[in-house]
Amino acid sequence: MTLQATKLQPSILRYQDPPLGKLEISRRISIPKAVIFLMLFTYAVMVVYPMFWLFYTSVKSDQDIFLRPFSLPSPLHLHWNNFSRAWVDGHFGEYFFNSV
Question: Domain range for residue 69?
Fold first, then answer.
């Protein structure tokens, strides 16, 4: 019994550009995809907006929080010391080390 090696001719695959004028780009959005996108976008807003509200309220003064709760804080009057005041006055450092 003898084994004979057969030579296979490799086929050359070439990409051919479509003829000019026959190129069609179809961008159709189906109804189910649009509904899914709308639902995901709504969910994202419901998740991100409260975090945004939490952050920008945390850099407002106490007076601004109660007098103008829906206004954005002025970039010139951000109260970054609210974080250190909450850490010290709320004893967060003590609670943090107790939980470790």
Answer: 31-99
